[in-house]
Write a structure and sequence with these properties.
Shape: elongated
Structural class: mainly alpha
Strand content: under 5%
Largest sheet: none
Distance between the termini: 32 Å
Radius of gyration: 24 Å
Number of helices: 3
Number of strands: 0
Amino acid sequence: MSYTSDLADSAIETKEQLVSNLRRVISDAEDLLAATAGQTDSRVNELRARARENLNVAREKLADADAAVRARARQAATATDEYVHDNPWSSIGAAAALGILIGVLLGRR
């Protein structure tokens, strides 16, 4: 459970960093839109409206992706945990075989 939990936590941390970076980009774009609010050129207004719409779509998709990745990470951790509990000897054998393989590979160096 610990290993799969660590992997799921690592994936979630990486995803959270990505989400944080995207939120900063969205915030900066909103600041830029606010800074150009005083400009009345029709082309600038059109671009600002389109940018605002794209930011709203990006925010919605980011929230959906965040929820989906978290759910998949939890499902993977749960499935792995259940498999290990249902098949403890197979899991021990696989871990031992992997350990032997790594030992042989490192012994060749």
